[in-house]
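User: Sequence in, structure out. Go.
Assistant: Echoing your sequence, followed by the structure tokens.
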Amino acid sequence: MKKRDLIHSFVILLILVVAIGSLFLFTKFTGYAIAGQSCNDNNTIDGDGCSAAGLVETGWVCDGEPIVCTEVVTPVCDTTHLTLCLDEPTCTVATGYWYDSLCNAEPASVCDTTHLTLCLDEPTCTAATGYWYNGVCNAEEQCVPECSGKECSDDGCGGNCGDCDEGYTCSSGTCEAEEEQKDTEEIHTTVVTPATGEVVASETTTVEVTPLCTPNWQCDEVWSECVSGQQTRACIDSNACGTEEGSPPRTQDCVVEETCGDGIKNQNEEDIDCGGVCEKCKKNIFTIIGSAVNGPINSGKTFFQKEILGNKTRAFIILGFLIAGVAGFVLVRKFLKINISLKK
């Protein structure tokens, strides 16, 4: 490549760079949009309608050259937008006047048939063909309950004049006893001539059938105290059938719980209901003396049973010594008596 061609290529490249840079600076600082951007407000601050990335932010509209962004505000029910108030409470808060199902800026001119709520007393309400009660002018007449001479049934205003007791039904405003339903059975009787088999007469008779009585047992939920290993409870048949059929058990086995107040020396008590797991036994002079005497006696008794009677060889030796001792004692007494008689 010739030197002249290199110079031409370099110049062309330089011109392109300068052109692109100039275009960027022009659009950056003048506010005009370029391709690929939706807005350009000459800054990189978010929250002003045009974001730092050059995009229109939600709730904003940007247009013009230079670009101007305007926040879109959705109107609500207020003093300047009364038509957006859709009910009486919000209309009143917005200082409007609710009538004809609309929120109006001016009050209705007069109390009339279509504006009964503007009638503030009974005479004007009556003149507007309204009905005055409960401090308000109403379009419908007040309902007065009608229960005169009635024990039950509707009062005419959606209420009730009363309810009948169990076993009674309401009939034309009066409580009447329900008829008892009785079981019946039809008996067919036919008279036949034996010789010819001809039916002479036929009769159907309806008789009352006594229904079978089914016991309905009801027992106490709580059993009695445990006495001698048994507990009891009471059971009755509410239908009074007079039979024990299906009767629940009235007795059950139990175990007396050992306590420190059952009057029995049990558990690990030292005495009746005291000592061991119970409160410490209170000792008096007689208890102390008895314990002092019984201690050595019980110790000697235990020693004799364990050390002497428990070893047969030792028991025979001790028994032999006892016999020899008794025999020696008797011989000595006998010898002394003989010696005394010889001296006399």
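User: And one key feature?
Assistant: The longest helix spans residues 312-343.
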